[in-house]
Amino acid sequence: MSQKISQRETIVAIATAIVPQQGSVGIVRLSGATAIALAQQLFYAPGQQTWESHRILYGQVQRPSGEPVDEALLLLMYSPRSYTREDVVEFHCHGGIMAVQQVLQLCLQQGARLAQPGEFTLRAFLNGRLDLTQAEGVADLVGAQSPQAAQTALMGIRGKLAKAIRQLRSQCLDVLAEVEARVDFADDLPPLNEIEVRSQLQSIHHQITHLLATASQGELLRTGLKVAIVGQPNVGKSSLLNAWSRSDRAIVTNLPGTTRDVVESQLIVGGIPVQVLDTAGIRESVDEVEKIGIARSQAAAQAADLVLLTVDAILGWGDAEQTLYEQIKNKPHIFVINKIDLLDEKENARAKSVNPLSDTHLPNAATVYTAAAQNQGIEDLEKAILSAVRSGNLAAADTDIAINQRQAAALVRAETAIAQVQSTIQDELPLDFWTIDLRTAIQALGEVTGEEITESMLDEIFSRFCIGK
User: Does the reported pTM lie above 0.85?
Assistant: First the structure.
């Protein structure tokens, strides 16, 4: 990271995904003092096209010998009106692999340096274009897996989190200034209004706690929810996955043990990315392949955030289901009573009136009734999942702000420091003791926005970015 900060060469990277025989456009991005001059060496713009900021030129990328490499567009953004606040040039080439790779190599041959992961956004941060929360919002937006995650990331880029943190930090600085003034000029100033300070600290503590409550929501939006469908063979797990994903992801037959491995599907439920795992039916088996599948199913169930324990409505709850329940009872779970369409009207009513665990004297859990083969009950299942998420305090009321783990760690330190100040006041300790924890809180809040930052922290943050961003 020290190399990134001290060396200000022109950097270059491919800024779009490169897929063989796919992608109509590939972008090579340069940023730095010599970006414009380098582009002028490599790009030929016929006619009287003007090289000015925020203008697109048409022409061709060519080698210094004049040999053409690609027909392309050139986008110019002069400092400071660019993403990095440096001169930025983008070659908009044909997609695929060869065109952009050749243009990248030409830029490197002309003296540009290959950008490190996140270096464009790092320069935007170092040059004051973005604060640290906005920079992390950029990474979140690139990696968003749902519209809700994208919207939350966009709010971060627009500075909603930064505004809240700066207000908190400003309030802490105001309190610190009042306290330090009494320490240094006790004889010249009126006594400190301790009641007002207590009120300010209580407000700060409450606001930090509110922000910390969004950490689980942020983690959920970024990584998604892992849901495992488990149960005995032939209870309809694969049919449930197919109905839920509206596809034939899993093979469905009347033969028990058809699913031999974990089958995955990516879904969006209530704005939350959900990875659904259809597992092999768990039973005693002598088949070596099936035994491997069962072992993987058990591992998937233990790794899941939520387990859907699926029961055949006709066969009901038995010893095998009880054994499965004992394995997952300490994890968030929902009972799915499937094949409800195969019961006659009287049996259907009876099944829905009795919890499958009623005879086992175990705690009740959410129960959903489905007919997966008929695509029935999926909406109720999604509602139950969202309800389980909320009851587990995984959802926050304010979805416009969702802090990440790094930000949460800093806010926890700030919250602890503010609580310590309140305790110090309660214990009637000297004002000097107040200032120690107030400074700790101010520093922790500054780490969130980047006002208090170290090179090692920057290295850790930006190393998670993709190259070209």
Answer: no
